Amino acid sequence: MVYKEKFYIGFSDVSPDMAALNSTVLKLFENVCCMQGEAVGDGFKDTPGRWFLTAYHVRILKRPEYGDRVEVGTWSRGMKGVAASREFEMTLNGEKAAVALSNWARLNSDTGKLERMSDEAFAKYESEPDRTNFGELWLPKLRTASDGLFEREFTVGRNLADPNRHMNNVRYLDLAAEMLPDESEPDEFEITYRKAFALGEKGVLSYGEDDTTRTVAFLSEDKTETKAIVRFYK
């Protein structure tokens, strides 16, 4: 089942050139995903179960602009143990504007432990395993490339946190984009989420690049652990 909603691209959703930000696209994906969860009885107020992102692969095909109205759809590809796969598709004037493949893990917010969703509950999502823009179901974990060319410290303030008191998945992209040496909004990027940053936690952003990609690693304060990686394609 493809769940769809329409959204307006507002003033705070665009860059100085009036084009939608990559973070705007992720926010819309996040919102439509939550809306489908509520529609099938798997919302925040319905169950202690929480889906946490573990990986994203996003391609912008036609970037929306200020004032555009887009339709965003999402569908489940399937579940394996505590993990699940989901795709997204944004259309603008009937044409594909963005597509994404994402992987998730299920956590019980009461126990703090990973748990498998029951087959009966998951069946309400009406998965479509063969419907895809990517041809794969599970994303590989990103690895850091070369040593960072430069670094920057950060703290997870309230402006970066979500209701789970973790840094919101969209904010990783925001912080990574600030590390880019120019103001570009790359049309393709991947994110691997390994371990969430908690509210009030400090970390280090490490930037590196090669001929085809730019990579931002999210490191623990002492730089002994890589908690997330954002890779932009040139």
Describe the protein's architecture and organization.
With 234 residues, the chain is mainly β. The chain folds into two domains: 3-125, Thiol Ester Dehydrase, Chain A (Roll), CATH 3.10.129; 150-233, Thiol Ester Dehydrase, Chain A (Roll), CATH 3.10.129.10. 14% of the residues lie in helices and 39% in strands. The protein has helices at 22-39, 119-122, 169-178, and strands at residues 3-8, 49-60, 69-80, 83-92, 95-108, 113-114, 150-155, 188-193, 202-209, 213-220, 226-233. Strands 1, 2, 3, 4, 5, 6, 7, 8, 9, 10 and 11 form an eleven-stranded antiparallel β-sheet that branches. Helix 1 (22-39) packs antiparallel against helix 3. 33% of the residues are buried.
